[in-house]
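[Discussion] Sanity-checking designs against the backbone

I'm trying to build intuition for which residues belong where. Below is a structure token string of 168 positions. I'd appreciate it if someone posts a full sequence so I can compare it with mine line by line.
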């Protein structure tokens, strides 16, 4: 059994997360929830959305929901930050920053643990509900870091709007 494809996907997931995390350094708690005038998003929402999306792409689409998932990402959290959700301004309207960070890291750890166990045959299975960008389980996993990098760019822009120094 070849592990090249899942190894490549794993490396891309780890790269995307490292790239995203560099933009999260040096932010105060208030800056995580800062929303620029005329916009609706903030860093905390972006990070929570990434956790919900990674769960959806790499776990939910690949193996379905498990009762144990609620310990990784509570259903209410998932619903509040999934695709189509609307960011709510202010820390008072969002989960605590520590919970967002715990779920962000926890989903990533669970994804890396589970995808390491899949075979090529399991990953080549077509999805019940194809996405415009992919139609197999491996495709969902491969799309996850691409999606994350889009949001890393949004986080980088939010940082720049705060007056933070350029990073890449």
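Best answer:
Here's mine. Compare freely.
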């Amino acid at each position: 059994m070849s592990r090249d494809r899942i190894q490549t996907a794993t490396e891309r997931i780890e790269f995307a997360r490292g790239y995203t995390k560099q933009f999260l350094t040096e932010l105060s708690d208030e800056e995580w929830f800062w929303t620029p005038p005329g916009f609706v998003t903030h860093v905390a929402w972006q990070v929570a959305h990434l956790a919900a999306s990674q769960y959806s792409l790499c776990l939910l689409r690949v193996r379905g929901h498990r009762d144990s998932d609620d310990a990784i990402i509570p259903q209410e959290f998932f619903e509040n930050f999934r695709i189509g959700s609307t960011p709510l301004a202010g820390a008072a309207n969002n989960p605590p920053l520590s919970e967002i960070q715990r779920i962000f890291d926890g989903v990533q750890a669970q994804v890396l643990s589970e995808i390491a166990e899949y075979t090529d045959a399991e990953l080549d299975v077509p999805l019940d509900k194809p996405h415009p960008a992919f139609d197999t389980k491996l495709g969902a996993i491969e799309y996850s870091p691409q999606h994350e990098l889009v949001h890393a760019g949004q986080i980088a822009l939010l940082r720049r709007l705060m007056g933070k120094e350029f990073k890449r």
